[in-house]
Design goal:
This protein has helices at residues 43-50, 72-78, 94-103, 109-122, 138-150, 168-183, 195-201, 219-223, 269-277, 291-304, and strands at 2-12, 18-28, 32-36, 58-63, 66-67, 79-82, 156-160, 187-191, 204-209, 212-218, 228-235, 248-254, 257-263, 282-287. The protein is an alpha/beta fold and 311 residues long. The chain folds into 2 domains: 2-223, P-loop containing nucleotide triphosphate hydrolases (Rossmann fold, 3-Layer(aba) Sandwich); 228-291, Alpha-Beta Plaits. It has a 6-stranded mixed β-sheet, sandwiched between helices. The longest helix has 16 residues, at 168-183. The radius of gyration is 23 Å and the shape is globular.
């Protein structure tokens, strides 16, 4: 049984804007799934409909077999949502935010306290349990939103930009927690503008653009479409000339930075051999951008231009 099954989902707002245009989407139980798209593509509308925050115009939504129209309470009980925007009472203590959320699902106070403690400890917030929301940093508020969404132990967790504004150390800590949560059986749907986040965490991916799903494949298959990658080389000194080598396109960015576009399945050994013959000493090497970001930009640009997407 799928965790989420969406069929022919449409949404037209009162001003005539059609946010969703017959979306079909299935997310298997236990999956870690990425839903990506540019701003205004329809991601938040789709999530809002599934979470009963936005009224759909047409189509069907099922969560673990429960029909959103006929069984809305069972759908709500099955999922947890971490929205983009903070929506707390700023004067409540952290632990009360989580306990109050449990109350909405009929969880007794004593059990809610135990669940709140577990969630806050997992997200490194237990020491701030007595602090008011208004004094927390942005990263702490993000983690608290995750704790709040998990207190009723949903089978499906939807994360809408969960690490926006979070520093690198905390982001990776959240990633570890989410991987453990998914390994324990929780299905996770992630939207993010940090595409390295999706590439690192997710097994399957859908791309939505202009209210339509344009891609819905496993991550490995999508990344396998890349024909080139761009490497950034840090140089010890500015080269006097750049070598020419089949399979590589070299571009000097500044005195100490060289960008190299490498064709698919091309060994970089020949590149370093050519650089060495030209007297160019490399002191560092990195990817210019993660693979998913590179492919995502290509797919969205092709879709906007009305051209066929890569097969």
């Amino acid at each position: 049984m799928p965790a989420l099954a969406v069929k022919k989902l449409t949404k037209v707002y009162r001003n005539g804007h059609q946010a969703l245009r017959g979306v079909d989407l299935t997310v298997d139980e236990g999956d870690f799934f990425a839903l990506l798209g540019p701003n205004g593509a329809g991601k938040s509308t789709l999530i809002g409909i599934v979470a009963s925050l936005v009224t759909k115009t047409g189509g069907e939504v099922h969560v673990f077999g429960h029909d959103l129209d006929r069984e809305p309470e069972l759908v709500k009980a099955s999922l947890g949502l971490v929205p983009q925007e903070f929506n707390f009472n700023l004067f409540l203590p952290v632990i009360e935010v989580v306990i109050n959320q449990a109350g909405y699902y009929g969880i007794p106070r004593r059990e809610a306290e135990a669940r709140a403690e577990y969630a806050l400890r997992q997200l490194d917030l237990w020491d701030r349990r007595g602090s008011q929301m208004r004094v927390l940093s942005g990263g702490m508020k993000r983690r608290l939103m995750i704790a709040r969404a998990l207190v009723h132990r949903p089978r499906l967790l939807i994360l809408d930009e969960p690490t926006a504004g979070v520093d690198i150390e905390i982001r990776h800590a959240v990633w570890r927690f989410l991987r453990e949560l998914n390994a324990g059986g929780t299905t996770i749907i992630l939207t993010t503008h940090y595409l390295e986040e999706a590439e690192s965490l997710c097994r399957n991916i859908a791309i939505i653009n202009d209210g339509r799903i344009t891609e819905n494949v496993d991550m490995g298959a999508l990344l396998g479409r890349l024909k080139t990658q761009t490497l950034v080389l840090d140089l010890k000194r500015r080269p006097t000339r750049l070598p020419q080598r089949d399979g590589f396109v070299l571009e000097q960015r500044d005195d100490h930075t060289l960008e190299v576009e490498v064709a698919e399945d091309t060994s970089i050994n020949g590149l370093f051999e050519a650089l060495s013959h030209a007297g160019i000493e490399v002191v560092g090497l990195r990817n210019k951008q993660n693979r998913l970001e590179q492919l995502f930009l290509t797919l969205v640009e092709n879709d906007r231009g009305g051209r066929d997407l890569p097969a």
